[in-house]
Design brief:
This protein is mainly beta. Helices cover 0% and strands 49% of the residues. Strands 4, 6, 7, 9, 10 and 11 form a 6-stranded mixed sheet that branches.
Length: 174
């Protein structure tokens, strides 16, 4: 491609020659609300603006990652899914899309993290209750924090425990 410009009857300017290469936008890896993949998952999915394109998933850091599985075709809804062995916390993944022999840049990387262990509240409470208790799905070491309407009302630090109880001031719960 060459670009020419001219104003009125003045001299015409001419640019150098530019070579046009293909362009394929990078696919997007679908992550959780915190922008991560979860350890133990056995597939990685994403989206593309080009149904029919081919997506290859890689483990590692672009451009030297290791291909995971075979390339998959983006479906008519713009979604692709690669089946993988269980994802390992700390690994990174990226994807490259090919459309008509034109490869995209690498997608934004997605890091694999271990899912957080979330507490559950057990029992029922009234405004006269002076504590709230609950359980953890597995042994947990850390701090459990209790919030009412977005404000912290108490906390408890536990070590390798599956149960917790937090004391709250009277008339805090409603």
């Amino acid at each position: 491609i060459q670009i020419y410009s001219q104003t009125g009857t003045s001299c015409m300017t001419q640019s150098g020659v530019f070579t046009v290469n293909c362009f394929s936008p990078a696919p997007v890896i679908t992550t959780n609300a915190t922008g991560n993949l979860l350890s133990g998952a056995t597939s990685v999915s994403g989206t593309s603006a080009f149904p029919g394109g081919s997506v290859q998933l890689y483990r590692g850091t672009a451009p030297s990652g290791v291909a995971v599985g075979s390339p998959v075709t983006v479906n008519s809804s713009g979604i692709w899914t690669v089946t993988a062995s269980a994802l390992v916390s700390g690994d990174n993944y990226y994807a490259i899309q090919t459309i008509s022999s034109c490869a995209s840049a690498a997608s934004s990387p997605a890091t694999v993290l271990t899912p957080a262990v979330c507490p559950s509240i057990t029992g029922s409470y009234t405004d006269a209750s002076n504590s709230v208790s609950g359980t953890m799905p597995s042994a947990f070491t850390g701090t459990i924090r209790l919030y009412v309407d977005g404000s912290q009302v108490g906390s408890q630090t536990i070590t390798s425990a599956t149960a917790w109880a937090i004391t709250v001031p009277a008339n805090t719960l409603y």
